[in-house]
Amino acid sequence: MRSGYKEIGFGKQKVAQVFEEWYTVPAYQRHYVWDSDNINDMLEDFASNYLEHDNEEYFLGSYIIQSKEQNNDLLDGQQRITSLFLLFAFLRDYHRSSVDVKENCDTLIIQKENKIRRIARRIRLSYEIRGNVKFFIEQYLVQAGCLVEHWDDIVRMSADKKESTSIQRMCNALICYKEFFDNHEEIDIDKFLGFILNNVVLIYISADSLEDAFRLFSVMNDRGQKLSNADILKSSNLEKIEDDRDRNDYARKWEEMQEDLGNEFDRFLAYVRTMLLRKRQKMNLLDEYEKFIFKVGKIQKGKEFFDYVFKAYDDYNTLINLNENNDAEYCTLIRILNNSMPSSDWIPVVLSYGRKFGNDGLLKFTLRVACKNIADAVCGKSPSHRIDNLNNIINLIEDSDLSDIVKESDAFYSFDEHIFMANIQSEVYGRRYTYALLMLLEYKYKDKSEWKEFGTISIEHILPQNPKPNSKWIQNFSEEQRDYYTHRIGNLCLIGRRKNSSLGNLDYRDKMKKYFEKNIGSFAHTQKIYNTYPIDWTPEIVEENQTRVIADLMDIFGIKGYDK
Asked: For FRET with 391, which of 13, 175, 217, 553 sits at 20 to 30 Å CA-CA?
C-alpha cells in the first residue's frame, strides 16, 4: 500500500533515497535549532567513518513523516534533514567541489521539471508556513552560486538577533561547513559525498493519519535535541484540531510565544499547570497535564487548551514581563519580587488573580501574597507548605466572585507573628529570607515613579564581619557587641556587587565615602542609612537603626502591635 511517495510503515533508507522525495516542515514544528556543536559532531562522525569504515553503514538517526498524496509532512527529524539539505547547498557552491559534486547536490536540493513524467520543478525541503524561512531558502540556497554571491549576508544574519531562530541557525550551519572543509583539505569531496549518499542511512516511520504520526512524534527524540514539554504538548493538542487553517494559525501563535519566552517556556507551562490544578506538582509536567487536566476534562485538548494558554501568555506579558504596563508602583513591586522570590511560588497566584479580576486591587493583592510567602519562610515553613498555602489562595480566587473577598480574607494571609518577630529580631544573615526582607525595605522607600535596574546585588555588613585589629570598629564595639550586632538586620543593607571587598573593612567615614557612595546606586533603604548616619556607626546607632528597620517591617507585613 502506498500513500503519496512513502510506504506506510517503517524502513531503512540511504540519504540518496531520502532526497529523492519532497518534504514540508509543517506549522506545528519548532524552529531549526541545531547549533555549532550539533553540526560539527555530525561532520566529524561522517569524516571519521568515511576515513576508517568507508565500506560500512553509518546510522544517522530516524525521521517520522505523515505521508500525503503529493508530499511528506516532516514531523520528527527536521533537524538532521535540514542539516543535510544545507550541506548539499554548501557543497554545490563550494570552490573545491567538482562538477560532479555540484550537479549531484543540485538534484538533491531541487527536483528538475520533467514534463514527460509530469513532475513539476520543486524544492526538496520547504517551510511553507514560515514565509521568512521560505524566502531565505529560495533566495540564498536554491540557485547555484547564491551562497557565493550572498556570503556576507549569511555571516551577518548568523549573528543578527532580529532574524528568526531558524535563519540564524541555518546561516551558522553554513559557516560551520565552510570552516570544516577549509580545515580539511585532505578530504576528497567527491568520495566524501558518495559516502554520505550511499553509506549514511536513516530509519523512517511513515503514517497516513495525523493522529498516528503525532503519537510517534511524541515519543521520538531528535539527535542532540530532545523534545521539550512544549513540543509534545503542542503536537498532542494540534492533532485534535481538524481544520488545516486553524491548525496552522494555532501552531504559528504557539511558535511565536515559544520563541518569545525562549528557555522560560517550559517554566511558563508549569505556571499554567498550577493555575489549572491549584496544587503541588507530584509527577512530571506532561503526566500531570495528561492525567489530571486532559483526562478528567478540566480542559479539553485542542482549541480550548491553546486559548487558555494564549490568554495566560497575554496576562504574563502584562503582569510579569510588564509589557505596556503603566502602573509604576505595581511594576516596581514585580521587579522587587523577581529579584527576591522563586518565580514558581508567586507567579501562578498573580496570574490567576489577574485572569479573574484584572487590575482591580492587583497591587494590594500581590503585596499580600509576597508578604505571606516571605513570612512563612521566616517562620520556618517548608517550601511545600508555602506552596500549599499559595495554592489555597488560587482556590480562593477561583471560588470567589468579588476581588474584595480575595484581598480581605485575612485567614489566607495570616502567619505566626510571634515566631516572625522573634526571628527577624535575631541574627538573620545567611537565612534564605534575609534578601527578600531587605528587598521589601527597598520597595517601601523607593521612588516608584521611575525604575533603575539593580544589577548584581550583594548584602553588605556595615559593621564588617572581620574588622582589622587597629581599626575604629574595634574601638567602638566590644567583642560582645560585635557578636551581637554583626548579623542583625539593622547592620545589613543592599549594595551593588563590590569590586574590592577589602574596602568593606575601612573605618566608617572612609567606607561611606570611598565605598558606599559608588555602590549604593538605586538602593533607597541603603541611601536612607547613608544620609541618616553620615558620621559614625556605633552600638547605639545600630540599635537605633535596628529599631527603625523592625518597625518598617512590621508596617510592611501588617503587624499592628507586638507584645514581647
From this structure: 553
Edge-to-edge strand list for the sheet holding 72-76? 9-14, 200-207, 58-67, 72-76, 23-24, 125-126
Examine the domain organization and report whether 257 and 291 are in the same domain: yes
**Residue 69: CA atoms inside 13 Å, Cβ hemisphere, count?**
0
User: What angle, 0 to 180 degrees and rounded to 10, lies between the N-to-C axes of helices 524-532 and 434-445?
Assistant: 80
Supply 356's cell numbers. Answer: 479573574
Query: Tell me: the pLDDT tens digits for 469-483?
Result: 888 999 999 999 999
- pLDDT band, residue 28 (cuts 50/70/90): low
Distance CA 362, CA 101 (A): 65
What would the 3-class secondary structure string for 261-300 be?
HHHHHHHHHHHHHHHHHCCCCCCCHHHHHHHHHHCCCCCC
Compute the mean pLDDT over every residue in the chain, rounded to the nearest whole number.
Answer: 85
292 neighbors 298 (Cβ within 8 angstroms): yes
The answer for residues whose C-beta is within 8 angstroms of residue 535's C-beta and 6 or more apart is 508, 509
Mean pLDDT computed over 404-433: 93
Q: Are 76 and 26 contained in the same domain?
A: yes
> Rg of the Cα trace of the chain?
31
**Beta pairing partners, 457:** 496
Total tally of structural domains belonging to the chain: 3
Residues with Cβ < 8 Å from 98, sequence gap 6 or more? Answer: 189, 190
Nearest one of 476, 458, 457 to 467, comparing CA atoms: 476
Query: Could you give the CA distance from residue 144 to residue 507 in angstroms, rounded to a whole number?
Result: 73
* Domain identity same for 52 and 192: yes
Q: Where are the alpha helices (DSSP H) in 379-470?
A: 383-399, 403-408, 417-425, 434-445
What does the pLDDT look like over 99-153, one tens digit per residue? 999 999 999 998 877 777 776 778 888 886 555 888 888 889 988 899 999 999 9
How far is residue 505's CA from residue 486's CA, in Å, rounded to a whole number? 13
Same domain, 59 and 207: yes
pLDDT interval class at 4 (50, 70, 90): very low
- Tell me which of 225, 245, 276 is where a domain ends: 225
Give the closest residue to 78 by CA, choosing from 147, 18, 135.
Answer: 18
Residue 563: inside a domain = no
Which among 379, 396, 415 is the end of a domain?
A: 415
